[in-house]
Amino acid sequence: MTNIFPKPLLYSGTVIGKTYLNAKTVKLEIKVENPAGFSFIAGQFINLKVSQYAFRSYSIASFTGLAPVISIILTVAHDGLGSNYVKLLKTGDSVDLIGPSGRFVLPEHLEKNLLFLITGTGLAPIIPMLYELMQARPDSEIELYLGFKNDEDVFEEDFLKTCINKFKSFKYYMCVSRPSPKWTGLTGRITDFYKVKGMNNTQSFICGNPDMVSDMLNRLKLLGVAENKIFYEKFVVSSS
To answer: What is the Cα–Cα distance from 215 to 119, expressed in whole angstroms?
Structure first.
């Protein structure tokens, strides 16, 4: 998995699909058309133009092999520039974006244990990483902890269920901090449940709410996990 990062460029494209994964979360499918040849590395993001002078960053949530068609997953539960822009988009609309960007990607060497610590739409860049791992078929044991505030916020669990049959060893744990009475899964935050199997042979991938990312970084470092075995991306929280 030697990474040669593509140069970010300004692209234009067309919306070819828009799906509400739940009341708050949208998956947007874009065909990147001009210039030709768009590609990315699993874990990277794009900057979508949401007004004349503003861009918003969204992780690519689709398999690299589908490029130049890409998907992004985002929350539209507020009245920010990006949220409102995406809520108004419809199939056939033209969009502009800059990308791909970011270095939150799988390393060339994979350890025995891969630990994913994720909240909310932080799952987006992990989806293409898991697709890449399906292609590579490593012997690694993979565990993923995914946290949501409410059980109504859960999305893409069907995809995670398919991963169980795609890997030699894959487990995921869904945690909800403010569950409804009907929730039957884990109650609490991912920080209440995660486990590091081995300090020297575990690589940790952290993505989501910036407070969670900072908290997990501190926890892992206090446990003695080496910094070169921790990969992370903090999502920017924007209300505009």
So the answer is: 12
CA distance 126 to 131: 9
Name the strands in the sheet holding 9-20, side by side, starting at the edge strand that comes first in the sequence.
55-59, 45-49, 94-101, 9-20, 25-34, 69-75
> What are the Cα distances from residue 212, in Å, to 30, 67, 93, 145, 192?
30, 31, 35, 12, 12
What amino acid occupies position 123? Answer: L
The answer to whether domain 9-101 has CATH 3.40.50.1950 is no
Parallel, antiparallel, or unpaired for β 186-187 and 170-176?
parallel
**pTM for the whole thing?**
0.94
Pick the CATH number of 113-234 from 3.40.50.1860, 3.40.50.80, 3.30.457.10, 3.20.20.70: 3.40.50.80
Confidence at residue 240, expressed as pLDDT on a 0 to 100 scale = 44
Q: What backbone torsions phi and psi does residue 128 show, to the nearest 5 degrees?
A: -65, -30
Q: What pLDDT does residue 239 have?
A: 45
> Which residue ranges make up each domain of the chain?
9-101, 113-234
Rounded Cα distance between 64 and 137, Å, is 16
**Per-residue DSSP letter, 236:** P
